[in-house]
What does this fold into?
Amino acid sequence: MEQQNLFRVADRFSFEGEPVEIIPYGNGHINDTYRVTCRTDAGARRYILQRMNRTVFGRPEELMENLCGVTEWLKRKIAENGGDAQRETLSLVPLCDGNPYLKDADGEYWRAYLFIENATCYDLVEKDEDFYQSAVAFGRFQRLLADYPADTLHETIKNFHNTPDRLSKFEAALEADACGRAKEISEEIRFILERRALAHVLTDRLQDGTLPLRVTHNDTKLNNVMIDDQSGKAICVIDLDTVMPGLSLYDFGDSIRFGASTAAEDEQDLSKVSCSLHLLELYAKGYIEGCAGALTDAELDLLPMGAMVMTFECGIRFLTDYLEGDHYFKIHREGHNLDRARTQFRLVADMEEKLPQMKELVARLRFEV
Ligand code: ADP
Ligand code: GN1
Ligand code: MG
It folds into this structure.
């Protein structure tokens, strides 16, 4: 049934050739992603087809307006800089009737992209160079969007990286304890409550004007950037659903919490989880280079803190979802969100110990890059 439905949906898009295979694809936590293979006279053509997550994105029309605006903008800039606009940013494939997305009879929203061939999204750093490359790409991404008319962007998820708000939502979920799970997680609850002040570090400095608001990606996991299989360069930043005004420290921090960890985000053996100073240094170097002088002194000073706050926030989000019954992040096993929360808190604890070294290495890089 689902297959039939998928083919019916695929038929509405202006794909070249006839769809012959549609399979689930990738490791995203949010959308339902499929790879579509079409047969054409010239050989196979592949596409990405996505059902957008309606629970997470309450206003898909606004999200698609952002996405069309941002991808068009990036295409123009990439072409002006002599790049390959079809490969270096997402290319939406419209419906046969020209619309950029489909709303089906069940009210589900679908969109499609050209499949970026000969490139890979990594879930863990396999080669240090890839991580460095991803940093350059996310820095460059921010630079390309620096003069984007930010007031035209919709906030696709309200308070997305408002860490104090995430903390309040956690406290509400704890109070409600809808699934009776609070009793199993007293250690994690204590960990969060002892660090309440950490939640305010970035937002306070945004409010008092110390940190500038920029157009940021806001979901800069390593598996949201595609690395070219041949050149090893990060060619394309993907997953643009959360491009919104934000802090550079959100982007830097989120990359570190995922990519500079020595273990997977859902590792159950916490003895394997730590923050690699070597990877942090590589990423910071690449990011500072990619931003090409745009970061202010205050932003540079706070890069290590950004990593810690974003890791803390993500742990809070995973634990909140665990308390509420796992309705936000996709899970693949019992306790998956709890495992994820635990790795984040282990990383925060490790970063607390390493903070002086983290600050020292970033301070050194400021003058080298
Ligand atoms: P989610 O929001 O669920 O993370 P993504 O947009 O990141 O969804 O897509 C999930 C995965 O699908 C990515 O990690 C990547 O592996 C793959 N993917 C997405 N877009 C493309 C594309 N245009 N070409 C090739 N692979 C893609
Ligand atoms: C989600 O969509 P994906 O899997 O790239 C989430 C991020 C989290 C991340 C944790 C829209 O990212 O904010 O940091 O999971 N995206 C959204 O792995 O909530
Ligand atoms: Mg993703």
Q: What stands out?
A: The CA atoms of residues 164 and 200 lie 6 Å apart. The pocket of adenosine-5'-diphosphate (ligand 1) is lined by residues 25-31, 33, 48, 90, 113, 115-116, 121, 223-224, 238-239, 241 (CB under 6 Å). The chain has ten helices and ten strands.
